[in-house]
Amino acid sequence: MKNIDSRSHVRGESIYVNDIPVREDTLFGVVLGSPVAHGKLKKVDFSEALKMAGVEAVITASDIPGENQIGSIIQDEELFADREVHFVGMPVALVCARSEALARKALAAIRVEIEELRPILTAREAHAEKKFICPSRTFRIGDSDSMWKKCAQVVEGQAEMGGQEHVYLETQGAYAYMLEDGAVKVHSSTQATKYVQVGVARVLGIPMHKIEVDVNRIGGGFGGKEDQATPWGAMAALAAYTLRKPVKLILSRADDFTMTGKRHPYSFDFKLGLDQDLKILCYQVEAFQNAGAAADVSPAVMERTLFHGTGSYHVPNATITCHSCRTHLPPNTAMRGFGAPQAMFAFEAAIMKAAATLNVPPMEIQRKNLLQEGDRFPYDQLAANCNAGTCWDTAYKKFAVEKLKKEVADFNKKNSRFKKGLSLFPLCFGISFTKTSLNQGRSLVHIYTDGSVSITTGVVEMGQGVNTKILQAAAKTLSIAPRRFTIHSTNTTRIANPSPTAASSGADLNGKATIMACEALRARLQGVACRELKAQDPAQIEIRDEIIYLKGKATALTWERLVALTDESRVPLSEHAHYATPVIYFDKTVEKGHPFAYHVYGTAVTAVTVDCLRGTYEIDLVKAVHDFGSSMNLDIDIGQAEGALMQGIGLMTIEELLIDPKGKHIYNNLASYKIPDIYFAPKEVEIVPLDSHPDALALLGSKAVGEPPLMYGIGSYFAILMAMREFNPKMKLQLWAPLTHQKCLLSLYDDYGDLLK
Ligand code: MTE
Ligand code: LUZ
Ligand code: MOS
Questions:
Q1: In a mutational test of the pocket of ligand 1, which residue from 222, 467, 642 has the highest number of ligand atoms less than 8 Å from its CB?
Q2: DSSP strand E in 87-182: where?
Q3: 261 lines ligand 1 (CB under 6 A)
Q4: Strands 27-33 and 280-292, how do they pair?
Q5: For ligand 3, what atom is nearest to the CA of residue 191?
Q6: What are residue 113's DSSP bridge partners?
Q7: Tens digits of per-residue pLDDT, 166-205?
Q8: Would you say residue 757 has pLDDT above 60?
Q9: Cβ contacts of residue 348 below 8 Å, gap of 6+?
């Protein structure tokens, strides 16, 4: 089935926050951000700004009737800086004017006095100064300490991975206005209606029932709107509440770039030990997470890093430690993969180092150590229906890796300036929020008397096609045509307390709730049909393609007639259902449990060509065998896989966030921050679904797909590195993603005295 949004998208008719027709008297907000990363806020003088035409108010911390606090996991984040500023771009004030242009003009007239303090910019600096977001945590399996001496080879090293900007097409924003009796409605571009509602309630000091948060869809989130849509929703609501006028606040791309957090940069110290046969005996890693200036979801990201410390491999002895370090950068946040890509990169870096040291291909070490059925993860869960080896072997055969290897070797023999490299990357990603309580979904289904159906769930459509999947699940359960359904906006008055749309589990959680609601409705309809058709047992009734069957035989009773009869019989045509993932649990006191409903597996093959004169590279191909379970919509799922792959390649190659020594992002637009475009895309991309069994905890057996394929991008890093080592075997092994063209060029000529002569 086609994505139900494709028609309105293509016609430009899809509605985002900025497309909502503005009400009379609407004001437009622009945020004043701190110009320095760390300092004492001495004075904010906006008297001149207030005198300007069309400017109605400048709102600061002192205007907040409730609490100046929006922290979710830890209450450590102010909506507006009060006494101190903690990052460049930290909101200090909101200017409200009759147009955005006027507000921006007024912004320039505000004088801010700040006594600058020294900023901490890297995780390692923060670690040295013991600036932490939360206590550090360690996952352990076996006893790595006593195993090192039993290893034939031990390698140690450091790996670095940079952050990443989300680059959702729709920037952050909200539109808020008063309803009656002190209630506020907020249209927000958020992945988490509840978080915005909670934030607004806290800032305004009013109960949650007075706040309605609505999301029609968002123009991408990628995790960036899981926790970080809240400040803009809260500011718009605060302004609407205090000024009693509708207020719209849409960030410019530059402001969004500067003020919002990104994927967490990480730094790692790793140590890997292997036996004679290249079997991994032990692994130890210490991860330093750059959390930025406030907790945001960093403790949860850190947790996912710990869970993915050993990647797709079986490691009998492992010690995985993570520190969440407080720095003076915008609070880093959720982004597709959520701490897992960093952990996996560190492990692959360790394998690369071992391979380089032992002079064996990394693939040999990788294949020998893949997870097998029943292997224990460091957090105690066992690998079940483990497809790690199957994906690898299928990819190896299907994509003729032996032949590719030979082609690459031949090419490298014949060419001195251009070199090719090849890598395989195995994926294993756990599905479920690592915080067990978040694993619940809800659905509200109304059947109207004409037989049409309305569905509201807790999930937010952000381009991932989840509404199409919800519709498919409902249409299948009720056995009626897709055209009968409308999926309505995500709204806190229809679905209360939803989990954020995140952790790739939006479709599983809310789709399963939708099936439950539809099953309950179907049972009621069957009861009415049973009476109408004078059958003995509702079990003899079946609804199939909008026709009612009795004992397998079609009757004259249609869907529409049955629905009308049901209403006439005073049997309710509405159902609200709740789904909570069974089986999962986790005990933080011992760091053991069964946190994931299931794992998603896959293997990607990547080939690249490096231009060793320029340091540029092209990605020749990425081919992956991916475990979709039994996909309920391959068009959407392949689209997700390809999109995630591109985002992952960007992360590992050209997307570089540069920060100046004072803590300011040097880039604030897409002319300087480079993301993959169509020219940079691999010349060939092929995603082949693995023939795997349908997992019972996945929606209709169709496994979660939103995040896992992003990690295939890690393969591009190592393919490029392999090509570079062909050119300069003496090159220092630098494990520092992203491997930009510039870094590539500098590394190629590292220790290359002869060539430069
Ligand atoms: N796809 C598009 N087009 N836009 C997005 O913002 N977000 C990704 C992924 N795919 C995203 C996307 C992220 S980070 C997640 S967690 C999942 O979609 C969330 O949706 P799901 O739970 O329905 O898979
Ligand atoms: N968000 C979250 C996530 O709150 N918990 C998670 O485990 C998670 N995982 C991936 C992406 N977002
Ligand atoms: Mo995705 S990072 O879970 O929003």
A1: 222
A2: 91-97, 111-116, 137-141, 153-161, 173-178
A3: no
A4: unpaired
A5: 4
A6: 43
A7: 999 999 999 999 999 999 999 999 999 999 999 999 999 9
A8: no
A9: 311, 362, 425, 714, 717, 718
